[in-house]
Amino acid sequence: MDSAHSPSGLPFVKMHGAGNDFVVIDRRSPAAPEVTPALARVVGDRHRGVGYDQLVTITTDPEADARLTFWNADGTQAGACGNATRCVAQMLMAETGKPRLTLRTARGLLSAEETAEGLIRVNMGQPQLDWAEIPLAQAADTLHLPMPGDPAAVGMGNPHCIFFVEDAGAVDLAARGPGLEHDPLFPERTNVEFASLLGPDRLRLRVWERGTGITLACGSGTCATAVAAARRGLTGRKVTVEVDGGTLLVDWAEDGVWLTGPTARVFSGLLDPALAGA
Q1: Nearest C-alpha neighbor of 207 from the set 121, 89, 83, 92
Q2: What pLDDT score does 2 carry?
């Protein structure tokens, strides 16, 4: 039997939300192996592994429907991932029949629900607007950072540096992203967003994700950008955001920042035992 289809392999599911793609590993079984930084890197390799923007593990939680942990392709952990949370919520809703779930992440307990249109929305919590919470390396005005290009900073459980530009589509993300990710103002590195205003309450967004690189969408980055746009008076608190992989909706409500969009299950498979043992 081909070892790629061996029952001893590690089961996984590939999903995406607006092109933001994920490998989901269900670790609610005691027999499921622990995910390590080395395994995250191997699985994240798009040529030698499966490939993903983030890897998500599901474990049990006594106070929630499940606990989610997020990994970047470079083997580091991510504190928040809005589209991955939405994708796993859809998977668990299909499994349990529940239209609403509570999921624990490093951000705390997050509420997720299905809309009448079949989209999945998740409350990503209140934005972090104080410099120390994001965090920044020093006290600064988070609405106007002391950096070229006048970016804003917002925390959504992970740090974001948002630039408002004339044409987000014209930005060379590959050239600008790495240096900005490692800017010394962000001691934990940062996600980088470039946004342009398309019309009333409508933004165009492109993203460089910390630990991953260019992605077709970023849920927490979409939320952070919408918050920054509202704070600057560019939009209201309900915003439609066009990303490279589709369209996401953000509502900065009293109870937190709600992210709404599509989800898709692409395929499932088994990681080869040799790969799973990385």
Answers
A1: 83
A2: 41
- What residue spans define the domains of the chain? 3-114+263-276, 152-254
Return the pLDDT at 277. Answer: 63
What is the CB neighbour count within 10 angstroms for residue 95? 11
Could you report the per-residue pLDDT of 224-270, keeping only the tens digit for each? 999 999 999 999 999 999 999 999 999 999 999 999 999 999 999 99
| CA–CA distance, 72 with 80 (Å, rounded to integer) | 11
Pick one of 3.40.50.2000, 3.40.630.10, 3.20.20.70, 3.10.310.10 as the CATH number of 152-254.
3.10.310.10
Instruction: Please give the Cα distance from 260 to 249 (Å, whole number).
Output: 5
| DSSP-derived pairing of the beta strands 20-26 and 202-209 | unpaired
Domains 3-114+263-276 and 152-254 share a fold: yes
Cα 100–chain centre separation: 20
The predicted-structure confidence for 118-141, as pLDDT tens digits, reads as follows: 999 999 999 999 999 999 999 999
Domain spanning 3-114+263-276: CATH 3.10.310.10: yes
**Residues that are catalytic:** 81, 218
For tokens 């429907």, the residue is 65
